[in-house]
Automatic annotation (TrEMBL):
This is Protein Wnt. GO terms for cellular component: extracellular space. It is found in: Secreted, Extracellular space, Extracellular matrix. InterPro entries: Wnt (IPR005817), Wnt_C (IPR043158).
Length: 259
């Protein structure tokens, strides 16, 4: 196994996803012995609102996600890798907790909000993904020395503590522009994309990041249409055509990849 920056992100986003789903399903009553947290009404120090309502049971999501994922991921792994995976999984779980939103309901005479009751709610998972993507960009390469992960700092080696919530990795990333069978990377040359304008724009960025040229073109594709059930027992379809917009990565003069 290689533990690259991308591996660290994958572990963290998987851990966050498990925590998110388990926490959400707990609130929805999908588990027999779990429910959202009914807070006793506690007034905030600034007297602006009361904590109450039914907050997300984030602790349940964190505990169950840790138990489930690490039982699978760290089985028979060496100590160094166990600690590395556990660290990045923790970053993912905490990403859900720190992004919980405050949701409130007003009370009082119609049209006023003299009193508010507030509780914690999960954000969209897209927000958590963006948060972890920023962590990915700031991830630190480390070495495992005397049971601690250390990274190079301006004054020498510095220990990375779990409370810092930094993604860590031990191996440099391969060149994903090049085809590399050892890491199941197909490379970028010849990559074809289709779909929405947003998807095609992402594809163009991938091409350009490897010094390749993105070529847009249209392709006529056949598909089944006007399907009808015939007695008995067949489905008969006509053949229709549609025009599909596609993008392909091709060689340019500034290509970084070896042909």
């Amino acid at each position: 196994f290689t533990d690259t920056r991308e591996t660290a992100f994958t572990h963290s986003i998987t851990s966050a996803g498990a925590t998110y789903v388990l926490t959400r399903d707990c609130r929805l009553g999908k588990f027999q012995d779990c429910a959202c947290i009914n807070n006793k009404k506690i007034k905030t120090k600034d007297n602006k609102y009361w904590w109450g309502g039914c907050s997300e049971n984030i602790k349940f999501g964190e505990v169950m996600a840790k138990h489930f994922l690490e039982a699978i991921e760290i089985k028979d792994a060496p100590t160094e890798r166990i600690k590395l995976i556990s660290h990045n999984n923790d970053v993912g779980r905490k990403a859900v907790r720190v992004n919980l939103r405050k949701q409130c309901r007003c009370h009082g005479i119609t049209g006023t909000c003299s009193t508010k009751t507030c509780w914690r709610r999960l954000p969209s998972f897209n927000e958590i993904g963006k948060y972890l993507h920023e962590k990915y960009k700031k991830a630190k390469k480390v070495r495992y020395i005397k049971r601690l992960f250390k990274t190079k700092g301006p004054k020498g080696l510095k220990s990375i503590l779990r409370k810092e919530q930094t993604l860590i990795y031990t191996d440099s990333s391969p060149d994903y522009c090049q085809r590399n069978a050892s890491v199941a990377a197909d490379g970028v040359l010849g990559r074809e994309c289709q779909g929405s304008d947003k998807n095609l724009e992402r594809c163009r960025k991938i091409c350009n990041s490897c010094g390749l040229k993105a070529v847009d073109y249209k392709e006529i594709q056949n598909f089944n249409c006007h399907c009808k059930f015939q007695w008995c027992c067949k489905v008969k379809c006509g053949l229709c055509k549609k025009s599909v917009c596609k993008t392909k990565c091709v060689v340019s003069n500034s290509a970084k990849i070896k042909l």
